[in-house]
Write a structure and sequence with these properties.
There is one protein chain. Among the domains are: 96-211, Arc Repressor Mutant, subunit A (Orthogonal Bundle), CATH 1.10.10; 308-515, Orthogonal Bundle (Endonuclease III, domain 1), CATH 1.10.340. It has 23 helices and 10 strands. The chain has helices at 22-30, 71-76, 95-98, 102-111, 114-127, 131-142, 146-164, 169-175, 181-192, 196-204, 240-249, 297-307, 314-322, 328-333, 345-354, 360-374, 392-395, 407-422, 433-441, 448-457, 470-479, 485-491, 499-507; strands at 41-44, 49-51, 65-68, 80-81, 216-217, 227-232, 256-259, 262-269, 272-280, 285-291. Helix 5 runs antiparallel to helix 7 (146-164), helix 7 packs across helix 10 (196-204) and helix 8 packs across helix 9 (181-192).
C-alpha cells in the first residue's frame, strides 16, 4: 500500500500546491470537486476500485480510502478502474506542463508514447539520465515507474480504439503499443475488469462515462475508416476566444484552416501523418482525428491537448492574476484563458523567425511559400489542407537567395534550421526550458521577444513573458501598468509563475482577430 497522502505519511510532493494531507483529499472526494481530477486518485480498499475525486457514486468511508498520485500507481497496487467515472481517463495533471524538471519532462515524453517507441533507455537518454535514475525519480513522485506509466497509457489508448473504431482487436493491440495480443487482453481485463470485446459491446450499446476524458468516445461512431472521434476534457473555465482566435489568425495556408466551426491542421507523426479537427464545446473539445497509422493516436492526442493547453489549472492561474487590481477586471470579464501553443516546437521556431518585425499576414505568406516549396503534400477529402509543414531536415538545404526576406533574417532562419536538423538544438517536450533559452539566444538574430515567444508557445513554459511586445506594452499603458520593459518585468514578478497567462489577458484588451473566436 502506498504512503502517498496517508495519515502520518509524507506530504504528496506532486500535489503540494493543491493539498497537503489526507483530510483535504477526503474533503475533495466528499464534495465531488472536479478540479482535483487528475491531481490524485482515490483507491477504495474494500472494493479494490479506484476513482477520480468527482466520481458520482456515494463516497466510501474515510478509513477505506487511500490516495495515489497516478492511475498507474493505482493499477500497480492492484486496483481496477471504476466503470462509472473512468478515472484512467482523467484530464492530465497540470504539474507536467507547469514544470521543467526531469520528472515533468519524463511525463510529457511518456504521454507522447516515447517509452513504447524507444523503451526506458530511450526515455532516459533523451533526458540525460540513466534508466535507474529516471525509475527512482518517477517512483518517488508518482508511485510508479516508466513501464507502469506507459502501460497505463497503452490501456487508455486501447480503450479509445476499442470504443471509437471498428479495427480488429489484433490491430488495436499493436496500434496501442502492446507487444502481444496476450499482453493486450490481460491488461485490458486487469485495468477495466472487462474483456476487449465486452468493452466494445458496452460502447456500442451507448454506454457513456459520466465525465469527459483525455480521449473518451463521442456518442456517434465515426463511419470512416481511419477517423477517430473523441472528446478532450478540460478543467473549467475555458475561454476559447483567444485560444482558437490566435491559432486561426496566424494559420499557415495549406497547413491550418478554420472550417465548419473547427480548427483543422495537418500533423507530422512518427508512423505517418494525420489531420485533426478541433471544435470548442461547452464542456469539452470535440476532436476528430484522421490518421494514416493508428499507432500515432497517443502522440496525436497529447499534441492536441498540449496545443490547446487543456491540462492547465485555470482556477489557480486566475486566482493569482486576479490579486493584481489592474488585471482583476480582465480576469473577471473572461476567465479561463489558455496559452495557444503548437503541435511541433521546431515548426513554431521557424514561424517565429519568419514573423519577426512583420505583420501577421506577411508572416503567413512567408510560411506558406516554405510549405508549398518544401512541405510534404497530403490529401484532405474533407477540406482544403494540402501539406505538412516542412521538417528542419527538409529546410536545411535552403538557398538563402531564394528567400524573400531581409539578409539578416535569412541568416537567422538558415542558422536555426541547421541547428535543428543536426540536433545541436532540440526543441520539444523534453526540452530544458532555460537551456533552450540559452541556446536560442546564442543564435544570430534571436532577441528576447523571439526567445520568449518560443518558450511560451513551443516549449510550454507558463512563466514566459514578453515585456517588449507592442501589444503587451499598449495594454499595460491603457491599464495603468508600467509600460517600459524593465518596469513591467518588475511589476510582473507578482504574476509568477503564470506570466504567460497574464500576456493572454493583456493581449485580449486589443480588438484583434487573435482575440475573437472565428465565425
Amino acid at each position: 500500500m502506498s504512503d502517498f497522502c496517508q495519515p502520518g505519511g509524507p506530504v504528496c510532493r506532486m500535489l503540494e500546491v493543491m493539498y497537503t494531507d489526507t483530510e483535504r483529499c477526503v474533503r475533495a472526494v466528499r464534495s465531488k470537486d472536479a478540479r482535483f481530477d487528475g491531481w490524485f486518485f482515490t483507491a477504495v480498499l474494500t472494493t479494490r476500485i479506484y476513482c477520480r475525486p468527482s466520481c458520482p457514486v456515494v463516497p466510501p468511508k474515510a478509513e477505506n480510502m487511500t490516495f495515489y498520485p497516478s492511475a498507474a500507481a493505482c493499477q500497480q497496487a492492484g486496483f481496477r478502474a471504476c466503470k462509472r467515472c473512468r478515472p484512467d481517463t482523467s484530464p492530465g495533471s497540470p504539474e507536467w506542463n507547469a514544470r521543467a524538471d526531469a520528472v515533468a519532462r519524463a511525463m510529457r515524453l511518456i504521454q507522447d508514447g516515447v517509452v513504447d517507441r524507444e523503451g526506458v533507455p530511450g526515455l532516459a537518454g533523451r533526458l540525460g539520465y540513466s534508466a535507474r535514475q529516471i525509475e527512482r525519480q518517477l517512483l518517488a513522485e508518482l508511485g510508479a515507474g516508466p513501464l507502469a506509466l506507459a502501460r497505463a497509457q497503452r490501456a487508455q489508448t486501447a480503450r479509445v480504439l476499442i470504443e471509437t473504431t471498428a479495427l480488429p482487436m489484433a490491430e488495436v493491440a499493436f496500434a496501442a503499443g502492446f507487444a502481444s495480443i496476450r499482453a493486450f487482453n490481460d491488461t485490458v481485463r486487469e485495468v477495466f475488469a472487462l474483456s476487449p470485446s465486452e468493452l466494445r459491446t458496452r460502447a456500442s450499446h451507448g454506454a457513456r462515462a459520466t465525465h469527459g476524458a483525455r480521449g473518451t468516445r463521442v456518442p456517434e461512431q465515426a463511419g470512416t475508416r481511419g477517423v477517430i472521434s473523441l472528446r478532450l476534457p478540460f478543467r473549467a473555465p475555458l475561454n476559447p476566444d483567444n485560444l482558437f482566435g490566435h491559432l486561426v489568425a496566424t494559420a499557415v495556408p495549406g497547413v491550418e484552416e478554420w472550417r465548419d466551426g473547427a480548427y483543422r491542421r495537418t500533423l507530422s507523426l512518427p508512423y505517418g501523418h494525420g489531420i485533426v479537427a478541433l471544435s470548442p464545446r461547452p464542456d469539452h473539445i470535440a476532436c476528430r482525428l484522421s490518421l494514416t497509422d493508428p499507432r500515432d493516436l497517443t502522440l496525436a492526442i497529447s499534441s492536441c491537448r498540449r496545443m490547446l493547453d487543456l491540462d492547465a489549472d485555470p482556477v489557480a492561474v486566475d486566482e493569482q492574476l486576479r490579486a493584481d487590481p489592474q488585471l482583476a477586471p480582465l480576469v473577471d470579464k473572461a476567465p479561463g484563458r489558455r496559452v495557444p501553443r503548437t503541435v511541433d516546437a521546431a515548426e513554431f521556431a521557424v514561424r517565429a523567425v519568419l514573423g519577426q518585425q512583420v505583420s501577421t499576414a506577411a508572416a503567413r505568406t512567408h510560411a506558406a511559400r516554405l510549405v508549398t516549396a518544401h512541405g510534404v503534400p497530403v490529401d484532405d477529402p474533407e477540406g482544403g489542407l494540402t501539406h505538412l509543414f516542412p521538417a528542419p531536415e527538409a529546410l536545411a538545404g535552403l538557398d538563402p537567395e531564394a528567400l524573400a526576406l531581409p539578409r539578416t533574417r535569412r541568416t537567422t532562419l538558415i542558422t536555426l534550421v541547421a541547428a535543428l536538423a543536426d540536433g545541436s538544438l532540440r526543441l520539444g517536450a523534453d526540452s530544458d526550458w532555460e537551456l533552450a533559452r540559452e541556446q536560442l539566444t546564442a543564435l544570430p538574430g534571436f532577441g528576447p521577444w523571439t526567445v520568449e515567444a518560443i518558450a511560451m508557445r513551443a516549449l510550454g513554459d507558463p512563466d514566459a513573458f514578453l515585456p517588449t511586445d507592442l501589444g503587451v506594452r499598449r495594454a499595460a499603458d491603457r491599464l495603468g501598468l508600467p509600460s517600459t520593459p524593465a518596469a513591467l518585468t518588475k511589476r510582473a514578478a507578482a504574476w509568477r509563475p503564470w506570466r504567460a497567462y497574464a500576456v493572454q489577458y493583456l493581449w485580449a484588451t486589443d480588438d484583434h482577430p487573435i482575440n475573437r473566436l472565428p465565425v
